[in-house]
Amino acid sequence: MTTTHSAVRPLADDYVRRLADLDTRVATSLGTHPGDDRVPDLSPEGHDAVDELDRSTLAALSAAAVVDDDDRRCARLLRERLEAQLAVSDAGEHLRTVRNIFGPPAQVRQLFELMPTTSPDGWAVVARRMGGVPDSFRGYAAASLAEGSRRGLHAAPRQVETVVGQLDDWLAGEGGSWFHSFAAKAPDGVSAAVRSELTGAADAAAAATGTLREYLADTYLPAAEGTPDAVGPDRYRLGARLSTGADLDLDEAYAWGWAEYRRIDAEMRREAEAVLPGADLRTAMRHLDENGPAVDGVEEVRAWLQQMMDTAIAELDGTHFDIAPPVRVVEAMIAPPGSAAAPYYTRPSLDFSRPGRTWLPTMGETRFPLWQLISTWYHEGVPGHHLQLAQWTHLADRLSTYQTTIGMVSGNAEGWALYAERLMDELGYLTVPGARLGYLDAQQMRAVRVVIDIGMHLQLQVPADSPLHPGETWTPEIAREFFGAHSGRPGAFLDSEIVRYLGWPGQAISYKLGERAWLAGRDAARAARGTDFDLKAWHAAALSLGSLGLDDLTDELAKL
Prior knowledge:
It is built from 24 helices and five strands. The chain is mainly α. The protein has two domains: 8-229, no CATH class; 241-510, no CATH class.
């Protein structure tokens, strides 16, 4: 008997290995290069090297034999992702990437948060990498952004001004800058020589941050004047494809998002009545902010969130999920100053030596109402991002490293995290006073995102039945007013969100559209199996598929 061996998954794994050799951000995230002290090459030449790898991998994929369903899914994902990445690259988007969340400078800084720092040798690596920050920032500003500016490819002024403000926050850190604050965490066991190297590296990184700030404010910003916030339909479709893995009908998505906004708005008003009888929605939210359960103190809220995730793991394992031992560890963290307002998650290293982590930006606050945090941490932690992405990491040997790590599609992962919030509501976990209103507020935020993200970038008309500005064209100002009238989030958070949507077109819609795909897949599987449908078994199978784009997700989930 002749056995046909997979060629697709080894090709995908080889792509990950070669990409990690080119891009230290990938290597550090996966934990595959111990002692890696490189900084990202953010120059056009660094980007071109990745493009060449993408093209050569696509050519090899065309000749690779597909032997089973895992191969089929891997091949479709790899082809779709590489083609989407190259389309964005061919449009020159990397030459004008300035945004307030996960932009290139923030990616450089985040590397240090992912590095091993439990030994003196680890801190020596930190010092060497921190000393390379000036090279990375020069490649970003003096090479990539400058080339984009030469070609007339600019980020909008709103993005530039926001990032300048973030860099100011970095430079206002304790001891001189964020880099100095990080270097100061080195423990007593670190030698005087390494400590001196850390200080010098922090000085150099802070100076490079100041130089980048000056370039953005004094050179790039004047050149970018007149660049519109709206990117238009062509650029928007590129971004939406990259974030969703789907060719979307944007008119349908916009109309569906508006219908979801209307549906959730009615449910929120009913929930507000349960929170404070006789009160309208805004009054009920203010009541929860001022009088609802809250945690005082930054360290105290971090510990509270940690306990919440530990409890969720203990109670969900064996009942609604089978959680592998390495996945049972997740850490709650406080995000560094100068971060965007949205909480986020960082995945574990491939060997789980660095656990998955959730990150809370405090935005300078020291009191944290719980009504909005609970659903969010089910989203970021368990059963949300951590359970899915850490489970994928656990399965990397069975599928491929590509399917379970860098092949992640935002619409899949963010859709699962929204599904996880809904699941915890279905399971009766939202018992803290106001927690269910917080869940609905989070759902509403994601529905409004679909409307205003598409609306602003495509300059659509506000629907005729809108309570605000009906028939007018969406602008950032109208979107901010509308958002503020339909959200319990603080003003600083909403301001940050509007800038985020404008600077990362098509990403914000991936959450709610992804959840729609997950729910449709579950409904189809339940309908097909009838009384034999087992939710726990379906969860196990769904979390074992690895990454899929939204073009494929619902159909694959329906077969489980």
